[in-house]
Automatic annotation (TrEMBL):
It catalyses: NAD(+) + H2O = ADP-D-ribose + nicotinamide + H(+). SMART domains: TIR (SM00255). Pfam families: C-JID, NB-ARC, TIR, WHD_ROQ1. Residues 24-189 form the TIR domain. Gene3D superfamilies: Helical domain of apoptotic protease-activating factors, P-loop containing nucleotide triphosphate hydrolases, Ribonuclease Inhibitor, Toll/interleukin-1 receptor homology (TIR) domain. Its EC number is 3.2.2.6. This is ADP-ribosyl cyclase/cyclic ADP-ribose hydrolase.
Length: 1240
C-alpha cells in the first residue's frame, strides 16, 4: 500500500478571511467558454467534481443563462455564493463579454470575500493571457467598448494569469490534468466539505492513528478493524479517515449500515452491486444472475490490480466480511484475519465539554453561565460521544434551571446505565414526536422517506416538524433516501421504553418486533387494543400454528408486516385502522369479508400462492397508493379499480392464472407504474387506456395477448413501454400519441409484421429495442424523423432486408446495434451522416457483403464491432477517417484478408478467428499504444508451416518493432497475440523454458525523467490453451499474467491446443511509477489464471532508446532474399553482417525491397521519403540474405531485377507518370553514388 503523505500541487490562491459558510450555496463555480470546452474538458471536469468528490453543488456558467449582452443577476449571485471559482481560459475566452464580466466579478470576490480562484490555461500560454497577445488580443479588439471597460478586462486577465494554476501543455492528456485539479480542489474544500457534518472534536489524533496503521507495512492488502463500545465514535473515526485519504486511491467506497441493509431482502447483493459500481466503474447489471457467491468472484476479478479504499460500517457477521471485506465485534475481526486493530478512545474531560457545548449552547448563550452544569452533565456521560450529543441536543436552548432539573434526573441513574441516560432525551419530546420516533424504530426505518412521511401523516399531525425535531435532537438520521435510527444504543433505548409498557405480556405492549414476541401473541391469542405495530421479517420461512382469531382483539393495529411466516389458518378479522398491510405469504384465498380497507395506504400480498382474489364485490380504498399482488400464482381476478382512484403503483407480475384485467384499469388517471409481466394466461385487456399519469407500462411475457389497447386521451407522461413476448401482429396506430415516450422495447414478438408509420411522431424517443422479431421485414420510413433517438438495437430480426434510406437523419444516434439480421446485405450510404454515433455493433450478419464508403465520416465513432460477418471481405479505405476510433473488432470474419490504413488513435484491435488474414495493420503511426489479438489467424506468417528460424520475422515482432520505431519515447503499452510455435525470437535476449525467468534487475536510473536511456521492458510468452478440464470458473475466461500485466482470453476465440505468442511492451512512467518500478528487482514469472493455460516458454528484453530507432531495428532483423539467384549471405561471417539497410514500399500484392547504403555511411533516406509522401509506407527493416557487398556483378543483377519489378508496379504505387519515371532515374543515380562510396 502506498504511503499516505500529502503530495501534489500547492494550495489555491487564498485571501483571508475565507468566505462565510452561511453565504455559500455552491462549492465550485466553473467559468468557461462554451464553444471551446463545453463538450470536452469542461464537461469532464464537472463530472469529475460531482463524481470523484461527491460534490453536488457545482455551478456551470451556462446552466441558466438567458440571451443578451450582459450576464444576469442570478449568475452574479452564483459567483458570490461559491467557495471556489474555476476559470478555464481557452482560446476564445476573451471574445465573450460574458466570460470577461464573470472574471471581473470572480476577482472582486477574491479580494472582498477571500474566494479561492483557480485558473486553468487550456491550450493557451499564460503569457498570452497576461499580456493579451494572440487570441486574447484579437478577442479584446472585437469589443467596441469605452477605454475604462477594456482596461478592467485587461487588468482582470493580467491578474488571473499571475495566479498559480494548471496549464494543459504540462500534461499528456486531459484526464491527468482533471485528476490533479480535482485533488487540488478537494484539499481546499476538505476543511469545510466532509462526509460528516457534525463537529469532529478530538478527531485529528484518532484519524492519524488509523492512517498510521494503514501504512505500517508495505503490503498489497491491509485490513484495519475499528472496534469499541457502542456510541464511542467508531463510525465517525472511519468516515473521517475515509475523507482524509480517499483521493489517494484509484477507487473508494463507503458502505454504511451494512447490518441493516443485509437484513433486508437482497440486501447483501445490493451492497455488492453498490461496491461493484463504486469501485469497478462498471454497471451493476453485470452482477445480475450471478448469485451471492458468483458476485463475490466477479468482485475479486474486478478489483484485481487496483488501488482501492473500502470502508464497511456496522458488520455483525463474518459472512458479511467474506462477501465484502471491518466493525466493533472483535471476534469477527480475529476470525477474518484483520491486520491491525484500533480501539476507539472515549473523550477526555476537555474534549467532552467542547462537544457538549457545541450541541447544547446557542451562540447568544454565555459559556461562563453554564460552566458548572456542563461539568455535571459531562460526568454522567462518561466520555461517550453519543451520550454527549444526545444530551446536548435535548438541552439546546434551555435555561440553566432546566439544565439543573435534568441533572437531578441523572443523579438517580446508577453509574454505567447509559441507556437510562439516553432516555432523558425523550423527555424533551411531545407525545406525538415520541410516537413518531417509535414507529420509525419499529416499522419504518428501512423504508423510503416519501412512503414513511405518507404513512405517518395518516396517523399524526405535524409529521414533518416532528421528524425535523428528531433529526435535530440526534435521534434520527436521514441516510440518503431512508430514515435511520442514529445509533444502536438509541435503538436499545426505544425497545426498553416499549418493554417498560408491560414487561410480562407482549400482547399488551404498543409495538411488537421480534420472532419470540410475535409468535407468543399469535399462538396464545393475547393481542390487545394496545398493539399498534407488528413487524416480523424472517430470512428463512418458518411455520406457525395459530387460529383465525389471533387478530380479533387488535382493533387498533395500524402497521402490520409479516414476511416468510407461514401461518396455518388465515385471519377472520383484521383491524379497520390498518394503514399498511404487508403479509407474504398470506394464508387464505381472500381477505376477511368484514375487513374495511378505507385507511389502507399500502397493500402487499405478494407470493401468496393461496390467494385467488382480494374480496368479492366492490370495496372503496380511497387512500391506497401501492398494490402488490405479484407472484400470486392462483390469482384469478383483479379488484374493481374504480375503488382505488389514487393508486400510483400496481404490481401483478407472474400471476400465471390471471385471465383478464378489470376494464376499470384503463381509467386509473393517477397510476404511475404498472408491472404486468409474465401474465401467461392473460387474454382480455382494456380496449383503451386513458391514464394521464402513467410513466411505465410493462407487458412483457403476456404471450396470449393478441391485441394492444388504443392509447387515447392525454398520455404524454408515458416514458417507457415494454412489449416483450406478446402475440401481437402489429402495433396500434395510436401509439403515435405517446409523444413523451423515451424507451420502446419489443422483444420476442414472433408474429409482429409491421410497425406503423405513426412511430415517427414519437419525437421524444431515446431508445428503440427490437429483438427476436423474425417476421419484421422493414422499418417505417418515418424512423428518420426521430432526431432525438440515441440508441437503436435490431437483434435477431431475421426477416429484415434493409434499413430505411434516411437512416442518416438520426443525427443524435449514439449506439447502433445490428445483430443476427441474416437477410441484411447492405447498409444505407446515408449512415455517414450519423455524426454523433459512438458505437456501431454489427454481429453475425452473415449476408452483409460490404460497408458504405461513408463509414469514414463517422467522426465520433469510438467502437466498431463487425464480428461474425462471414461474407464481409474488406473494409472501406475511408476507415482512416474515423478520428475518434478506439476499438475495432473483426472476430471470425472469415474472408477478410487485410485491413486498410487505420486511424492513429486506435487502441484495441481484435482479429480472432480471421482465418484468411495474411497481414496485420502497420503500427508505426499509433499514438496511444495498442492491444491486438489475432488468435487463430492461421495465415499470418504461414502458420503452422513456419520453421523455427523464421520466428525472428513474425508479424507480432514486426508490429512491436514498428511501434517502437515510430515513437522515440513510447509511453503507452503495446500488446499483441498471434499464432506461433514454441520458438522465441532472438531479440528477447533473456529466455527460459516454462513460465519462470531469473530475477529481472531494473536500471538504477529508471525513475529519471530525462537522463535515462532505459524506456521499459518487452516480454514474450509462448503458450497454448486446452479445455480438457472443468476447472474454469463462470464464463471460462482464461488469463495469463505477471507483475507487469495481464492477458485475458475470452471463451471460444482460440482453438484448443493451438500455440500462440504474446508479445508486450511495458513502458516506464516516471510521473506515475507502477508498483513494479518501485523495486530494484522483479521475480518475473508468468502464470495462467486456470489449469487450461500451458506456458511453454517466456522471455524479456530491456528496451533502450536506441532500440526505438530505425538503425537498431536494421541491426537485429533477419530477412528474406530479394532474388533466388546469387550467393546466400553467410551468417557466420561477422564482418559481412549488419552492413546494409533496406528501403521498401508496399504494393497491392507483394512487397519490394531496395538496398540503399552500407552501414556506417547511410542516411535516413527512408524517413525523409516517407515524410515527403513519395512512399506510401515503410516496411519493417531486415538483415538481407543477399550477396556480400564486394560482388558488384551479382548485386547489379539484383538491382536490375528490382528495377524491372519496380517499373511494373509504378502505376500502382505512384499514380502520376510525371512523378514515377523521374523518381526511377533518381534512384539509379543515387544507387550509383552509393555503390561507389561503398566499394572496398
Amino acid at each position: 500500500m502506498a504511503s499516505f503523505s500529502d503530495s501534489g500541487p500547492t494550495s489555491l490562491p487564498l485571501v483571508s478571511p475565507s468566505p462565510s459558510s452561511a453565504a455559500v450555496r455552491y462549492e465550485v463555480f466553473v467559468s468557461f467558454r462554451g464553444e471551446d470546452t463545453r463538450r470536452g474538458f469542461a464537461s469532464h471536469l464537472c463530472d469529475a467534481l460531482c463524481g470523484k468528490l461527491g460534490i453536488s453543488l457545482v455551478y456551470k456558467d451556462e446552466d441558466k443563462l438567458a440571451g443578451g449582452d450582459s450576464i444576469g443577476p442570478e449568475l452574479l449571485k452564483a459567483i458570490e455564493e461559491s467557495r471556489v471559482a474555476v476559470v478555464i481560459l481557452s482560446r476564445n475566452y476573451a471574445s465573450s463579454t460574458w466570460c470577461l464580466e464573470e472574471l471581473v466579478r470572480i476577482l472582486e470576490c477574491r479580494h472582498r470575500k477571500g474566494q479561492r480562484v483557480l485558473p486553468i490555461f487550456y491550450d493557451v500560454d499564460p503569457s498570452d493571457v497576461r499580456k493579451q497577445r494572440g487570441s486574447f488580443g484579437v478577442g479584446l479588439e472585437k469589443h467596441q467598448r469605452d477605454f475604462e471597460q477594456l482596461e478592467r478586462w485587461r487588468n482582470a486577465l493580467t491578474e488571473v494569469a499571475n495566479l498559480s494554476g494548471f496549464t494543459s501543455a504540462d500534461y499528456r492528456n486531459d484526464s491527468e490534468m482533471v485528476k490533479d485539479i480535482v485533488e487540488k480542489i478537494w484539499r481546499e474544500l476538505s476543511p469545510t466539505f466532509r462526509s460528516i457534518s457534525k463537529p469532529l472534536v478530538g478527531m485529528d489524533r484518532r484519524v492519524r492513528a488509523v492512517i498510521k496503521l494503514l501504512g505500517e507495512r508495505d503490503r498489497d492488502v491491509r485490513m484495519i478493524g475499528i472496534w469499541g463500545m457502542g456510541g464511542s465514535g467508531k463510525t465517525t473515526v472511519a468516515m473521517a479517515a475515509y475523507d482524509a485519504i480517499r483521493l489517494q486511491f484509484e477507487f473508494s467506497t463507503y458502505l454504511a449500515h451494512v447490518r441493516d441493509v443485509c437484513n433486508s431482502n437482497g440486501g447483501l447483493l445490493h451492497l455488492q452491486r453498490q461496491l461493484f459500481e463504486g469501485t469497478a466503474s462498471q454497471p451493476a447489471k453485470d452482477l445480475e444472475g450471478w448469485g451471492s457467491f458468483g458476485a463475490i468472484e466477479r468482485l475479486k476479478r474486478a478489483f484485481r490490480g487496483k488501488k482501492m479504499l473500502l470502508v464497511v460500517d456496522d458488520v455483525d457477521h463474518q459472512e458479511q466480511l467474506e462477501s465484502l471485506a471491518m466493525e466493533h465485534n472483535r471476534h469477527i475481526m480475529d476470525a477474518h484475519g484483520v491486520d491491525s486493530m484500533y480501539e476507539t478512545e472515549l473523550l477526555d474531560n476537555e474534549e467532552a465539554k467542547v462537544l457538549l457545548c457545541s450541541k447544547a449552547l446557542n451562540p447568544e448563550q454565555a459559556m461562563e453561565d453554564f460552566k458548572e452544569v456542563c461539568e455535571c452533565v459531562v460526568g454522567y456521560a462518561e466520555g461517550l460521544p453519543l451520550a454527549l450529543e444526545v444530551l446536548g441536543s435535548s438541552l439546546r436552548g434551555r435555561s440553566v434551571g432546566e439544565w439543573k432539573s435534568t441533572i437531578e434526573k441523572l443523579k438517580r441513574i446508577p453509574p454505567g446505565k447509559i441507556l437510562e441516560v439516553l432516555k432523558i432525551s425523550l423527555d424533551g419530546l411531545d407525545e406525538e414526536e415520541k410516537q413518531i420516533f417509535l414507529d420509525i424504530l419499529f416499522f419504518c426505518r428501512d423504508w423510503e422517506k416519501q412512503s414513511v412521511v405518507k404513512i405517518l401523516e395518516s396517523m399524526y399531525l405535524g409529521v414533518n416538524i416532528g421528524i425535523r425535531n428528531l433529526v435535530d435532537k440526534s435521534l434520527v438520521n436521514e441516510g440518503g433516501s431512508k430514515f435511520f435510527i442514529s445509533h444502536d444504543l438509541l435503538e436499545e433505548m426505544g425497545k426498553a421504553v416499549v418493554l417498560s409498557e408491560c414487561p410480562d405480556e407482549p400482547g399488551k405492549r404498543s409495538r411488537l418486533r421480534g420472532y419470540e414476541e410475535v409468535c407468543h401473541v399469535l399462538t396464545k391469542e393475547t393481542g390487545s387494543e394496545n398493539v399498534k405495530v407488528m413487524y416480523l421479517r424472517l430470512h428463512d420461512t418458518k411455520r406457525l400454528e395459530c387460529g383465525g382469531e389471533a387478530f380479533k382483539n387488535m382493533v387498533n393495529l395500524r402497521l402490520l408486516r409479516l414476511e416468510n411466516l407461514q401461518i396455518t389458518q388465515g385471519p377472520t378479522y383484521l383491524s379497520h385502522e390498518l394503514r399498511v398491510l404487508h403479509w407474504s405469504p398470506y394464508p387464505s384465498k381472500s381477505l376477511p369479508s368484514s375487513f374495511n380497507p378505507h385507511h389502507l395506504i399500502e397493500l402487499d400480498l405478494s407470493f401468496s400462492w393461496n390467494l385467488e382474489r382480494l374480496w368479492h364485490g366492490h370495496k372503496a380504498l380511497p387512500n391506497l397508493i401501492v398494490m402488490n399482488l405479484s407472484h400470486c400464482k392462483n390469482l384469478i381476478e383483479t379488484p374493481d379499480f374504480s375503488g382505488t382512484p389514487n393508486l400510483q403503483s400496481l404490481y401483478l407480475k407472474e400471476c400465471e392464472l390471471l385471465p383478464k384485467i378489470h376494464p376499470s384499469f384503463g381509467n386509473l388517471r393517477k397510476l404511475n407504474f404498472a408491472d404486468l409481466k409474465q401474465l401467461v394466461c392473460l387474454k382480455a385487456f382494456p380496449t383503451s387506456l386513458e391514464m394521464s399519469s402513467l410513466k411505465c407500462l410493462q407487458l412483457s411475457g403476456c404471450s396470449k395477448l393478441k391485441k394492444l389497447p388504443d392509447f387515447t386521451g392525454h398520455m404524454e407522461c408515458l416514458v417507457e413501454l415494454e412489449l416483450d413476448g406478446l402475440g401481437i401482429k402489429q402495433l396500434p396506430s395510436t401509439i403515435g400519441s405517446l409523444v413523451g415516450m423515451q424507451t420502446l422495447q419489443i422483444k420476442d414478438c414472433h408474429q409482429l409484421k409491421s410497425i406503423p408509420h405513426s412511430l415517427g411522431c414519437l419525437t421524444s424517443l431515446k431508445e428503440i429495442i427490437l429483438q427476436s422479431c423474425p417476421r419484421l421485414e422493414e422499418l417505417p420510413i418515418s424512423l428518420g424523423s426521430l432526431v432525438g433517438l440515441k440508441e437503436l438495437c435490431l437483434w435477431r430480426c431475421d426477416g429484415l432486408r434493409s434499413l430505411p434510406p434516411n437512416l442518416g437523419c438520426l443525427t443524435s444516434l449514439e449506439t447502433l446495434t445490428l445483430g443476427s439480421c441474416w437477410k441484411l446485405e447492405h447498409l444505407p450510404p446515408s449512415m455517414g451522416n450519423l455524426l454523433s454515433l459512438e458505437l456501431l455493433q454489427i454481429h453475425n450478419c452473415v449476408n452483409l457483403k460490404d460497408l458504405p464508403d461513408s463509414l469514414g465520416c463517422l467522426t465520433s465513432l469510438k467502437q466498431l464491432y463487425l464480428d461474425c460477418c462471414s461474407k464481409l471481405e474488406k473494409l472501406p479505405s475511408s476507415l482512416k477517417g474515423l478520428i475518434a476510433l478506439q476499438e475495432l473488432s473483426l472476430q471470425f470474419c472469415l474472408r477478410v484478408c487485410s485491413l486498410p490504413e487505420l486511424p492513429s488513435q486506435i487502441e484495441r484491435i481484435y482479429l480472432n478467428g480471421c482465418i484468411s488474414l495474411e497481414e496485420i495493420p502497420d503500427t508505426i503511426s499509433l499514438r496511444y499504444g495498442l492491444q491486438m489479438q489475432c488468435f487463430d489467424c492461421l495465415k499470418l506468417d504461414h502458420y503452422p508451416t513456419n520453421r523455427p528460424t523464421d520466428q525472428s520475422d513474425t508479424s507480432a515482432l514486426r508490429a512491436l518493432r514498428r511501434y517502437l520505431e515510430g515513437h522515440p519515447h513510447p509511453q503507452n503499452q503495446f500488446s499483441i497475440v498471434t499464432p506461433g510455435i514454441n520458438v522465441m525470437p532472438d531479440w528477447f535476449n533473456h529466455q527460459s523454458q516454462g513460465s519462470s525467468l531469473t530475477t529481472l534487475k531494473l536500471p538504477d536510473d529508471r525513475h529519471s525523467k530525462n537522463n535515462s536511456d532505459w524506456m521499459g521492458i518487452a516480454t514474450s510468452v509462448c503458450f497454448s490453451i486446452c479445455y480438457s478440464t472443468n476447472e474454469c470458473s463462470d464464463d471460462h475466461i482464461c488469463s495469463i499474467g505477471s507483475d507487469l500485466g495481464f492477458l485475458k482470453v475470452s471463451p471460444g476465440v482460440v482453438t484448443e491446443g493451438a500455440n500462440h505468442v504474446w508479445l508486450s511492451y511495458i513502458p516506464k512512467d516516471p510521473n506515475k511509477p507502477k508498483q513494479w518500478m518501485l523495486q530494484p528487482n522483479i521475480e518475473l514469472s508468468f502464470k495462467g489464471g486456470c489449469s487450461h493455460v500451458k506456458i511453454k516458454r517466456c522471455g524479456y528484453r530491456h528496451v533502450y532508446r536506441h532500440d526505438t530507432t530505425e538503425e537498431e531495428c536494421t541491426n537485429n532483423m533477419q530477412g528474406v532474399p530479394l532474388q533466388s539467384e546469387g550467393q546466400p549471405w553467410n551468417d557466420d561471417d561477422t564482418s559481412q553482417r549488419h552492413r546494409v539497410s533496406v528501403l521498401g514500399f508496399r504494393s497491392s500484392k507483394k512487397q519490394q525491397h531496395l538496398m540503399l547504403v552500407p552501414r556506417g555511411k547511410r542516411v535516413n533516406w527512408e524517413l525523409a521519403l516517407l515524410k515527403s509522401g513519395l512512399l506510401t509506407s515503410l516496411i519493417c527493416h531486415r538483415r538481407l540474405q543477399l550477396v556480400p557487398w564486394h560482388e558488384p556483378v551479382v548485386l547489379g543483377a539484383n538491382v536490375i531485377s528490382f528495377i524491372l519489378k519496380l517499373c511494373s508496379n509504378c502505376s500502382r504505387v505512384f499514380t502520376s507518370p510525371i512523378i514515377s519515371f523521374p523518381l526511377l532515374a533518381l534512384f539509379l543515380v543515387l544507387f550509383g553514388i552509393l555503390f561507389v562510396l561503398g566499394k572496398p
